[in-house]
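Re: export button greyed out
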Amino acid sequence: MADTLRIALAGLGTVGAGVIRLLAENGTLIAQRAGRPIEITAVSARDRAKDRGVDISGFGWEDDMTALSARDDVDVVVELVGGSDGPALALARTTLGSGKGLVTANKAMVAHHGLELAQLAEANDAAMRYEAAVAGGIPAIKGLGEGAAANRIERIYGILNGTCNYILSEMESTGRDFGDVLGEAQALGYAEADPTFDIEGVDAAHKLSLLAALAFGTRLDFGAVATTGISRIRAADIAQARALGYVIRLIGLADCEKDNGERHLFQRVAPYLVPTNHPLAGVSGPTNAVVAEGNFSGRLLFEGAGAGDGPTASAVVADLIDIARGNVPPPFSLPVSALEASAPADPGHRRNRAYLRFLVADRPGVLAEITAAMRDAGVSIESMIQQGHPDDDDNPVLVAIVTHEGPEGAVDRALTMLEGSESLADKPLVMRLLG
Amino acid sequence: MADTLRIALAGLGTVGAGVIRLLAENGTLIAQRAGRPIEITAVSARDRAKDRGVDISGFGWEDDMTALSARDDVDVVVELVGGSDGPALALARTTLGSGKGLVTANKAMVAHHGLELAQLAEANDAAMRYEAAVAGGIPAIKGLGEGAAANRIERIYGILNGTCNYILSEMESTGRDFGDVLGEAQALGYAEADPTFDIEGVDAAHKLSLLAALAFGTRLDFGAVATTGISRIRAADIAQARALGYVIRLIGLADCEKDNGERHLFQRVAPYLVPTNHPLAGVSGPTNAVVAEGNFSGRLLFEGAGAGDGPTASAVVADLIDIARGNVPPPFSLPVSALEASAPADPGHRRNRAYLRFLVADRPGVLAEITAAMRDAGVSIESMIQQGHPDDDDNPVLVAIVTHEGPEGAVDRALTMLEGSESLADKPLVMRLLG
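Workaround output, generated via the alternate export path:
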């Protein structure tokens, strides 16, 4: 059997401890599959003495994690520290700069600095892999970058944030409201104390930007992801959607068109209405799923646990096995120089059906005002439901509209016309229907 | 850019023509992703002149396909001829024997001769890949052998035959009977003129045996797959299943236990009752899906088109891109010498709930006879439905029983007791509930 692949672990949180447990428990099998043993030689974390439920006494220790990349007994550094910049980025740079392999679960860092890191990896003939950064234990990066590599990818979309999916499917099954379920998710550990990155869609946007670069061969452009979270969704929206044959899911979706030689990349994270017979509608709880539509493969779907120490460790170690086997494709499937620049696509021309929810004052003329704006903007209404509060004149009334298919720009124009109207008790909520 | 990877195609049916079209249409992108061009240099088929909708005039031609493996201008042979033995096997042997790479979509050949071929590949340092042999365009072999490589796989199961799944989901949505829908499937090209291999589960068994070897590190044992097809399922079974909250799917399922140092491999293809909230219940039409349960990843699901020229060509070319990139893991993830022998597991101890359907004479005492046999065999009945034919004394009556969880052997014993009973108008049908 060939030489041991020697690993340094930076960050010993739940995922780091999971990697240690996994390599201990499945080590013999992994050595057989990888063709060589994979062993941890050194680790670094904030507190050496902390009880993590795993024994780290056999590993070398560095107080300064950057020192891991300088050690002679390390071939690959696994970065599990997190954060788009700071120590994680410094470690990634020195690791690749010294020709060592980098395996990371850090979606924020790759979303912000992936191109620079991929270039460093290329220049130093070093491996860079990040399967665990997208969709937890699901081999989505491998499925897209290798399994679907023969295809021009036409569209990629999926459920990329387990916290949001847990909250939405709980709201769905219990009828409770957002804040209520969020509190419970925090108590259960499915949501962070500060849940902003998750519930406002930023985490999903990080992941989407990686998938888009990989799928379309475009330069990473996290800044161009149009991002809307789920915090404005009410139990009433979910009930309306259900009555129409839909569930609500936070979807990250990207496609890419070439127009006059210029690439237009569309990247959006937003709640969508998903038809109940669509495979993503059945994805509930903290599960993730990624769909890739290839021009020969057709629709491919990858589904599994979106987070957790076991699944994430599984993805990290899959990357290590690939490196041990010598399977090191370019991080974004193409050499960095071949990744094309793109302009953000104008969503105004996209044709969709849309769900619009208004909270309105309960008085005559309100519906006329809304429908007139729709007509003037060229939006064709398919159905409209008004949900009144009998015996309650003080509370606003909910009006839910589903439009026929039409350009998104028309819906935007209608909403602009209604801006500042005294009939509206709240900013309207718009969600597209997944087609 | 590095040297061209030169391909010979044996077999120019719909998949062969699909590979030609794919390489032509996506060739530039594929060369970028693979790091080198992938080009067909020679082809072979029965009839050179046949119109296949693709131009083969630029490729070398061999009347004898085995000659492809002897050509100096060929690095990899793609075998799309089919058949477990005969010319396909001869070609595979000479290809690997001469150190050339082999890519095949031939599940029957790999199921019967995979170990010999993997050994040949090892001995000659040649690549052998067969992604297209299992589940069409879905990267299931890659997902299992690489994506889930860090895991001990605890169970693998899935919908592996598109023809059966089409028939079952059509029966489900239309209420029609098996023979009726089979005829339609044949007319639509979803089923062969001789559909035996598909509807009796042999095709799914081929695929399951490959997945099992890959998942558990056991030696291929196609002969040990217990195989039951779908031809005895009636519209009434599907209706009963639905009333109970289940759909019927032909499932291939395998797991592997170690007992006193001996490996016991369980491999079964059979119709199962699948709970409607299980992801496989939503898989309808000719779609395939593979589920792998890893000890760290948890449940991973891969879903997509199970057949068709585009998806199958996508899988073939993904293998070629892997070979071009130098990603050539052992065909069954482990060196052949490390694959363990296994004994077929005794299913009698497996604990399951079961659906039993009897066609019985409509006369007093029949139910007592059946329930007495169940009691004597130790089978606990959860529910029983008798579907009579009022005003029709000549036709048998359907009795559907669902058992509580218990050992399969007990159900078998009950059925043995009832064998030859004059109360039964037909052999009972047993289907397990997917747990």
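Chain B touches chain A through 60 residues (CB under 8 Å). The button fix ships in the next patch.
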